[in-house]
Amino acid sequence: MSSARLTAEYTHAGFLISQMSEHDLLEVVEIEETCGLSQWGWDAYRTELEKPEAIMLVARGRLPEVLNGRAVAGYVAARVGADEVHVNNIGVRPEARRLGLGGVLLGLALELAERGGARSAVLEVRAGNRAAQALYRRYGFEVAGERRRYYREPVEDALVMTRRLGPKA
After folding, report:
1. 130 with 143: CB under 8 angstroms?
2. How far is CA 48 from the centre of its chain?
3. What share of the chain is helix, strand, coil (3-state, %, to 5)?
4. What is the rounded distance in angstroms from the CA atom of residue 54 to the CA atom of residue 4?
């Protein structure tokens, strides 16, 4: 399976969407911590960046003052394996929410995964995270199952959500 990379940068609501680089990782980890996501940490993201099957995108702010001097407004981390993409994490800074960045990042990741050969997508989401669940439903995901006590800090169940990719999706 070939790696799927962005061949051009995209813009949305004054943000530039591009490939994640090692230089983005400190801010990615900061966003991860503020969003209550599963803690990967710097080393795990760096390792993931080296994998050709990884899809790692960031949204960079064109107006750093809106982001309190920070450059990265949000990110997505996913990985294609066989004919499936697993969306691992999507995070957007609180001050950049409600601008559609999460959806744009998710949409681009799914598009790249499909180009890389994926025919389905899967993710886990906290059972209590209604906003994320609504986003995923808007992008065609449906609840397929549940993982008890999947998350730690705090302990919470996860909903497993899936969707088909491709022309009949």
Report:
1. no
2. 13
3. 30, 35, 35
4. 8
Handedness of CA 142, 11, 76, 126 (dihedral sign): negative
How would you label 20-37 residue by residue, b for 16+ Cβ within 10 Å and e otherwise? beeebbebbbebbeebeb
- Please state whether the peptide bond connecting residue 154 to the residue before it is cis, i.e. omega within 30 degrees of 0: yes
pLDDT of 93-127, one tens digit each?
988 888 899 999 999 999 999 998 999 999 999 99
pTM metric for this prediction: 0.89
Q: Secondary structure of 46-84 in the HEC alphabet?
A: HHHHCCCCEEEEEEEECCCCCCCCCCEEEEEEEEEECCE
User: Which SS3 state, helix, strand or coil, does residue 133 take?
Assistant: helix
Choose among 28, 137, 139, 76: nearest CA to 159: 137
Judge whether 27 and 70 are in contact, CB under 8 Å: yes
